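Incident log, support desk, overnight shift.

02:14 A customer reports that sequence design results differ from what the structure should imply. Their input is reproduced verbatim below. On-call engineer (initials T.W.) acknowledged and began investigating.
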């Protein structure tokens, strides 16, 4: 019984590690933010604090439809409608969520 429980726990830990590795990357999101969002929204600390974590989830839901709509009439519209944003959206969401105004976290740089 102990051996099967140990195997189960080891498998659970392994699956947990794989799912974490497969998720988006907060650091990549921070880099994307600094390249594409900082000019209009300020530092990463200021930009991420514009919304709570739940609000960031809502803004990035449904393929980030609300973020895209919010930027439809500004100079960044091409970015938000392009493939680069589609490839970076999950990383950006994870960065902004990680440092949302109610998270208690502060990015180290930017």
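02:41 Re-run completed on a clean worker. Output:
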């Amino acid at each position: 019984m102990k051996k099967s429980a140990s195997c189960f726990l080891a498998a659970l830990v392994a699956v947990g590690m794989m799912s974490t590795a497969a998720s988006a990357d907060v650091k990549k999101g921070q880099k994307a933010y600094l390249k594409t969002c900082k000019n209009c929204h300020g530092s990463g600390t200021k930009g991420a604090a514009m919304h709570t974590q739940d609000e960031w989830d809502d803004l990035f839901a449904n393929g980030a439809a609300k973020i895209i709509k919010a930027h439809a009439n500004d100079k960044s519209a091409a970015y938000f409608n392009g493939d680069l944003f589609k490839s970076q959206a999950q990383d950006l969401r994870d960065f902004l969520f990680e440092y949302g105004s109610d998270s208690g976290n502060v990015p180290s740089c930017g």
